[in-house]
């Protein structure tokens, strides 16, 4: 798995992401600075990590979404290349128009940093083949703006086409407002684009991959991606 | 040429910040406020002297960056 991790000024989760990608795939990712106009030629996964690109100025992800490297990501995604955006990466993908909707301020107005439970809605995507549909995983969130929203028509389409991949849930997989930490519509934690090759999610699976942390629930996402790419090769 | 661009949330979009401000006003004893919606104002100076050109440029700026038209509306006001 040849991954490329994008770096924008203010991004701060790129090393967690690189560590996880190296651990799971055995290969160090290329670290790609935002002013680059091209991705490394052999890239088979682009990852936009979390952080606070441009200090969240204007809107979260707004300025990063318009940087030179994102034109290359747009072309790459249009050709079917796999793109994963986590946290600020999800916000950047929405601002770049690669995913619909927007991440608004958390309903309770607080920055939330804690482990949450996610229900994996589908296992037949390259991102979730390491899980079973309906499985509940424990991963952390750390964001002030993760409250996903889109217009009614877009939400209906996302739901109708099965493009909601992760939802905030209770430990036993129930969708409940008490477990929907940021107030996202339909408890949406992660979605894919129409073609299914671009995933944006607020939680951080890259932080739960080593037993020393206490749980390795995030591992399935990266192991699944590595397997999907190996399968495709 | 000086101009102002107003960016406001579309109606129907929840505004948790506006709601919090509304609550704070109430607790400060500012009576009679029935709703608050928060927005942004950009004061912009342009090289252009032609009104039409200036306005077109500002609309481009708003569409490309200043507003996220999924959730926000904008209004361009050429001041002088």
Written description of the protein model:
The complex is a heterodimer of chains A (233) and B (80). The longest helix of chain A is centred in the last third of the chain and has 14 residues, at 219-232. In chain A, strand 10 and strand 11 form a beta hairpin. With 233 residues, chain A is an alpha/beta fold. In chain A, helix 1 crosses helix 5. Chain A has helices at 14-25, 68-78, 88-95, 152-160, 219-232; strands at residues 3-7, 30-33, 45-48, 83-86, 102-104, 112-120, 136-143, 147-149, 164-169, 188-192, 198-201. Helices cover 23% and strands 24% of the residues of chain A. Chain B has one domain (2-78): Mth169, Chain: A, CATH 3.30.1280. Chain B is 35% helix and 28% strand. Chain B has a 3-stranded antiparallel beta sheet with strand order 2-1-3, covered by helices on one side. The longest helix of chain B has 16 residues, at 51-66. The N and C termini of chain B lie close together (6 Å). The interface between A and B is medium-sized, with 20 and 11 residues.
Stretches of chain B where pLDDT is under 50 for at least 5 consecutive residues are none
**Oligomeric assembly:** heterodimer
According to DSSP, the number of beta strands of chain B is: 3
Distance from N terminus to C terminus of chain B (CA atoms, Å) equals 6 Å
> What's the mean pLDDT score of chain B?
93
Largest sheet features of chain B: 3 strands, antiparallel
CATH class of chain A: Alpha Beta
Radius of gyration of chain B: 16 Å
The CATH architecture term of chain A is 3-Layer(aba) Sandwich
Count of alpha and pi helical runs of chain B: 2
How helix-rich are the residues of chain A, as a percent range?
Answer: 10-25%
Helix/strand-derived category of chain B reads alpha+beta
Biggest sheet layout of chain A = 9 strands, mixed
If you average the pLDDT of chain A, what whole number results?
96
CATH fold call of chain B: Mth169, Chain: A
The total strand number of chain A stands at: 11
Query: Could you estimate the helical fraction of the residues of chain B in percent?
Result: 25-40%
């Amino acid at each position: 798995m040849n991954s490329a991790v994008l770096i924008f000024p203010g991004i701060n989760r790129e090393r967690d992401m690189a560590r996880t990608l190296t651990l799971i795939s055995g290969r160090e990712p290329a670290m790609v600075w935002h002013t680059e106009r091209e991705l490394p030629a052999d890239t088979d996964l682009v990852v936009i990590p979390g952080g606070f690109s441009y200090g969240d100025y204007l809107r979260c992800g707004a300025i990063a979404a318009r940087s030179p490297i994102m034109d290359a990501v747009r072309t790459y995604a249009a050709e079917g290349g796999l793109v994963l955006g986590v946290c600020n990466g999800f916000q950047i993908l929405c601002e770049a128009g690669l995913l619909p909707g927007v991440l608004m301020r958390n309903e309770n107005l607080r920055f939330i940093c804690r482990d949450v439970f996610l229900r994996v809605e589908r296992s037949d995507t390259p991102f979730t083949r390491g899980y079973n549909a309906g499985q509940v995983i424990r991963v952390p969130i750390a964001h002030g703006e993760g409250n996903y929203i889109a217009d009614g028509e877009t939400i209906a389409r996302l739901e109708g086409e099965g493009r909601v991949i992760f939802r905030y849930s209770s430990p036993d997989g129930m969708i409940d407002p008490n477990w929907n930490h940021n107030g996202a519509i339909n408890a949406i934690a992660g979605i894919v684009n129409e073609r299914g090759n671009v995933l944006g999610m607020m939680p951080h699976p890259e932080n739960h991959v080593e037993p020393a942390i206490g749980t390795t629930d995030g591992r399935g996402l990266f192991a699944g991606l590595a397997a999907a790419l190996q399968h495709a090769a | 040429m000086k101009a102002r661009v107003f960016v406001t949330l579309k109606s129907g979009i929840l505004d948790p910040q506006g709601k919090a401000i509304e609550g704070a006003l109430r607790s400060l004893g500012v009576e009679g406020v029935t709703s608050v919606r928060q927005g942004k104002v950009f004061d912009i100076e342009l090289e252009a002297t032609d009104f039409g050109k200036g306005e077109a440029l500002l609309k481009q700026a708003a569409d490309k960056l200043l507003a996220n038209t999924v959730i926000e509306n904008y209004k361009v006001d050429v001041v002088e």
